[in-house]
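Write out this protein's structure.
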Amino acid sequence: MPRFSIIVPSHGVAGRLSQALDSVLAQSFGDLELIPVCDAPDAPAASVAAGYAERDSRVIPVHSPPSAGLSGARNTGLRAANGTYLLFLDGDDVLVPGALALLDARLAEAGDVDVLYFEHERTPWWEGEPGNPAAPLLAGVPQGAFAPDRAPALTGVALPAWSAAYRRTFVADRRLLFPDGHFTDLGWGGLTTVAAERIAVLRSVVVRHRLRRQGSRLNLPGPHQHELLDQVELVLERAAALPGERARPLFEQVFGVVLRTAARPDRMPGGRRAFFRRAGRLHRTHRPAGFRMPGGSIGVQHRLLAAGAYTAFRALRGVNQAAARAAERLPRPHMPLTRLRYALELRRPLDPHLAVYCAYWGRGYTCNPAAIHATARELAPHIRSVFLVEADQAHAMPEDVEYAVIGSHRYWQVLARAKYLVNNANFAEGVVKRPGSVHLQTQHGTPLKKMGVDQSTYPVVAAQTGSFTKLLGRVDRWDFNLSANRHSTETWERAFPGSYEALEYGYPRNDVYYTASAHDVVRARRKLGVPDGRTAVLYAPTHRDHHTGFEPGLDLEAFCEAAGENVVVLLRAHYFYDRGAFRNTGRVIDVTAHRSAEDVCLAADALITDYSSIMFDYANLDRPIVVYADDWEVYRHTRGVCFDLMAEPPGPVARTPEELARIFRDGSYAGPESKQLRAGFRARFCQFDDGLAAERVVRRIFLNQPPEAIPAVIPLAERLPAPTATLVRS
C-alpha cells in the first residue's frame, strides 16, 4: 500500500499536465501512486498520461467524462486510490520540491490524523509576488494533533481540496465524496472538517497553485452561481449537530462566501433576487443558537440578508460597472475620421453571410486562410468572402477573389460587419470583438520555437515581441484555434492562454499534400524551373532573432558540387524576407518570392532545414528530411524551443557543411534509418493532416454542423501522399 495516492484531474489542462506530473514523480519521497484523471482514452491529456504510465508503473490513469465535472473526476480518482493518504492536485498546479517528504515527516510526528492541512502558494499567471492565503488560517492552532473543537475557526470552508491530505480509511468510513456541481471544494472542505475527529497542520507550502489568466471558472457569470447555495445547504445540514462553538465560525465563514457572491450582480445575469431570497432563508433556518452578528458593514449585510432586504443590500454595496469601463478601454483606429466611421459601422448589425480573411498581416492569398476560403466557396457558397491585403500586394490577388486594402475605409467597414473573421496571425489592434462574431485563429505552423508568453524569458525575442498585454488582448478575441497535432494544442494552451476552443482538425494548407496529383507535381516543378531528371532539394532556413537580415547559413554552390552533379537547390528564405539574398544560378533557384510554399514543397524531392516549421508540413509528403543544425545550441538558448529536435529529428542531422554533403552524396538522406526517423516524426506531428482539414473547418465554423457531420481523421497508415517526381517519371 503506497503512502500517498495523488489524484490529478486533467480536464482542459493538457498543455500543463506534464509539469504537474513531473512535479510529483520528481519528489525525493517516492512511496506513492499517481492517478491522472482524463476525460476519455482519446482526450488530449490521455496521451500525456499514457506516456507517463509507460515509463513509470506508479502512474495509473483513469477516466471520467467531462459531464461529470471536477467532482466526478476527483471521485473517480478517489475510488481508484489505494494509498494511506489522499492528495488532490489540479492538473495545472505543481508540488513544490520536497513536499511529500515534509508531509510524511509531519504525519509520522502527528500520528493517525484524519486530515492534515497545509499551506499553499498562489502564483500569479504572469507577474507579481506569490501569496500564501492559507498561512493566516493555520496560524495559532495547536502544535500537535488535536480535536477540531480546539481550533473551531479552522472549518475547511476557506481551503481548497488540494490544501490538505486526507486519511483514505477516514474518507471511506464516513462515505465522503465530492458533492456534485460547482463550488465542490466548499462542500468537500466543510463536510470533511465536520466529520473529522483528529486533525493537524503543516506550516509549510506543499502545493504551488498557478492562477489561470482567465481567472477561476467559479467567478464567471452564469446560472452555476446558484449552485453555491446547494453546497452551503449541504454543509449546514451536516453541521446541525455540532456544538455552538464549532457551528458559529462555520456559519459565519460560509455566509462570508455567500455575501461576496450576492454583492457581485455581474456574476448572475438572472435570478439575483431568487438567490438572495434563498440565501436569506438558509441564514434564518441554520443560524446557530447564540450567533452574534459581526460588527461593521459585514454585520449590516448579514442583517439585510436575514431580513430579505435585497434593494437595501444592493444600495449598500453599489453596482459593479467593470464591464462598462472595460468597453470604454477597447482600442480604436487612430485617425479621427476613420475612428468615427468605424464606430458608426459597429452600430450596424453583423452581416451573417460575410467572412473576412487575412494571412501573414496582409501578404496576400496564401496559407490556411486561403485554403479555407477556397473550400468555403464550394461548401458554403452563401458566404461572401473578403480577403484583406496590403496595398503593395493587391496586384497579386487572384482575379476571382474579392479583397480590401488594409487601412482603407472598406477595410474597417468589413471588419466591423463580418460575422466570421479568419486569420493565421492576428487582426489589427483596433479591431473590436463584437458579440455574435466568430474569430478563427488558424496559426501558420507547428511550433518548435517558443511562442507567445513563453517567449518572455528570452530577452532577444521578448524585446522584438512588444507588449505581451496587447498580445493577450488579441488572443481574447479568438473563439477557435486550429491545431495540426496534439503537440500544438498543448503548446498553444501555454503560449496563448485564453478561453478559445481548440479545433484539432489539421492545417487546411496541408490538404494539398494528399490531394495533389502527378500532374500537379510536374506543373510545380516546371513553374519553378527545376530541370527534368534532377533531384530538387528544398533548403528552407528559419529566421534568426539574433541576426539583422537574411543569411543563408550555407554555401549552396559548394553544397551542390559536393552533394553530386544531379542535385539542384530550391532556396526559400523565411517569409520575413521579401526575397532571399541569392541570385539564381544553374544549380540554385531562389523561390523565396514564390507565392505558394505548398507548390515549392510538392516540387522538392527532399528538404534541408534547420529549425523551420516547414519540416512539419513537409513531413506529410513522407519524403526525406535532413536537419542542418550548425548552431543548435545558440538557437536553443536565444530563441527557446518546445522540444529537443536533436533527440526527435525527422531524419539525419548534420552539424557541418561537409557532413551535410556526405549525407546526400552517399544516399543516406533517403536510407532506412532516415525513413525510420521520419515515421516516428510523422506519427507525432502529422496526426490530423489528412487532406480534409479545410472541409472540417467549413462544416464546423460556417455551416455549424454537428460533430457527426465532421469528417473523421483518416489514420496515418491509410493516407496516400502526393507522388514524388521519381514516381511521376516512372
